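WARN  no MSA supplied for this record, continuing single-sequence
INFO  ligand: adenosine monophosphate
INFO  echoing inputs
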Amino acid sequence: MPYGELAALKEECGVVAAYGVGDDLPGLLYMGLFALQHRGEESAGIAVSDGEQIELVKGLGLVSEVFTTSCLHDLNSIEPKLGIGHVRYGTTGGGGLDNAQPLIVRYLQGNMALAHNGNLANTDRLRREMEENGQIFQTTSDTEVILNLVARYRREGIVTAVRKALRHVQGAYSLVLQSNDTLVAVRDPYAFRPLALGRLGDGYVIASESCAFDAMGAELIRDVKPGEMIIIDEEGLRSERLCEQDVPRHACIFEYIYFARVDSVIDGLNVHAVRRSLGRILAQEQPADADIVIGVPDSGIPAAVGYALESGMPYEEGLVKNRYVGRTFISPGQLLRNLKVRLKLNPNRHVLEGKRVVVVEDSIVRGTTSRNLIRSLREAGATEVHMRISSPPYISPCYYGIDTPSTSELVAAQHSIESIRSMIGADSLAFLSMEGLLQAVPGGGNCLSCLTAKYPQQTCQERN
Ligand code: AMP
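INFO  complex generated
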């Protein structure tokens, strides 16, 4: 479905960073953030440093709304050497400008800016302890908890401070942090959220997804490893491990299923190739007797193409997405709400009329999208609608950076497949099996919590 369709279901965040990439570092960060816009549409920000001071611009809205040519020009005027950027779709903490990132602290020993993708599992306790000790918080975001922990150890140098701070932290974090002259990037030991390292000229770039490197004209070197801390300063790049002991890798499987952009390579796998395999395997496992295959834009399309290739049925563009829908605001009357669905995703009557249709979607969460979609496909003339989902049933909330509804609202946690089929009004409904999913994402080491309700938990402190 189109990004941002669900009001209460929120995407994650995106981070980007650059060091020593030559002229116009803010412009390059802007390009990187633009490519990561799908990871968050609520706010955007860039912090840059010339080695002595940090300048920050952030605001609510899309990257193109927050940054004007003149503010990028202002950021450039300090001739920055390093910088970080962030797009946010609020998870813990809610929205508002205060929670927009990067977060920045200025104090006697220097400045620091931090941008974070993920969700911490023990923030409430950490925050309560800090508040009891007199610590003041300016935001409700768990990122400020990390920033305060780092500040606590800051006298020991930024690298030690980050390592010590993260020993307290449990959960998912892919973060980029800068002092005046040093860039640090860290991926948590489980590697829940993606983070990649790239090269641009004589400098380095870091981003949530490699599609940002393409936009910046940079080259992907590799993914940041689980529990790796990358430090980039005048001496060059070095890498350290956060903890002595390894934990099993738990990279989010949903990045492949839904979140990430199809042109990204995450942990060595191209997202488009994975989605296409999901569709192929789905066709083998769950065939349907129909005339055409259509996909739900955006994330359902490659899976639908894979399904069509495998089944031998033609792939057709049965749903047309308006590409300008991103932040359309429409008042909440019922008539306009119904029309809004059409505005975003219009069934193509020319393709659908008189056809038995297989519609491939990446996931069912609450079931509302599928119900509306199937109704509109029938109204546009489809004679049968066979729904195929390119992932196993979504049965449990994510605590690692994806804001999902509670179990009581997850339709697959509450109902059998047959009753979901009847609720959404499909002629048939089938999901990909777990074996099929793991076949399409080979290598293992993925977090499957939303599909299995089994959660990994352990802090660095406990391990060391
Ligand atoms: P629902 O209508 O609640 O069943 O939502 C299913 C749709 O939401 C599918 O089209 C998915 O592409 C999409 N989706 C899945 N996870 C998320 C998420 N975390 N945020 C926004 N949309 C999502």
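The chain is about 30% helix and 25% strand.
INFO  checksum written, moving to next record
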